[in-house]
Known about the structure:
Layout: H1 2-9, E1 14-17, H2 26-40, H3 47-51, H4 58-66, H5 73-91, H6 103-112, E2 116-120, H7 126-133, E3 141-143, H8 156-165, E4 172-176, H9 179-187, E5 191-195, H10 198-201, E6 206-208, H11 216-220
Parallel strand pairs: 1-2, 1-4, 2-3, 4-5, 5-6
Helix pairs in contact: 2-5
The protein binds 6-O-phosphono-beta-D-glucopyranose and magnesium ion.
Residues 18, 20-22, 54-55, 177-178, 181 line the site of magnesium ion (MG).
Amino acid sequence: VEDAARLTDAPVEGLVFDLDGVLTDTAEQHYQAWKRLAERHGLVFDRERNEGLRGVSRAESLRLLLDGVHVDEATFERMLADKNADYVRALDGLGPDDVLPGAHRVLEDARSRGWRLAVASSSRNARTVLDRLGLTSAFEALVDGTAGLPAKPAPDLFLQAAEELGLAPAGCVVIEDAASGVAAAIAAGMRVVGVGPVQRVGDADLVVDGLDSLDLDAVASLPVRDR
Ligand code: BG6
Ligand code: MG
């Protein structure tokens, strides 16, 4: 009885999307930029190690990439700037065709249900990416790496997005491709859809290969879990 009550207590009222790897495949451009940086510095880096960097902030990503290799602070800062310049250059090639399959349909379907829509991304380049994709006006709120909030897996970006939508966390469902993002959503008290392999996003309430296989009826009936 209590379970049924909890279910109806928290109807879905909003979706909070991660950006990189969910709405567009910039996860690939991030990977390529880190890989080029690693090669320039003689560091070992590959796709497998990159899985751990998904959703992780720029500085924390570099720490993971360095994997204990010591560099002085000036070098660390220069490496961050180099990687970002390389990544931003790659964004020049990004356009509306790079919105991943299913994204427009999911956004339209959500809108027709009256759900509110936000983006919460750790990236400081999120606004540029959304602009290039032609998606900026699709969302009522954008909380990103420029907000000065702790990065995922901290819940802050998602909580701020819910607040800007005027919704309680329990009414929001997060869509995430990163383990750190799934953890952040759970910490925020939100239900979460994982996009990608279960090895990466298996802690999510629902796992899909991509937005093209996401059914919003299934999202609407996700039970609020006891965590
Ligand atoms: C996340 C990406 O969205 O943003 C990470 O998944 C990235 O790969 C992080 O490191 C920070 O992005 P940026 O653009 O500020 O370096
Ligand atoms: Mg992501």
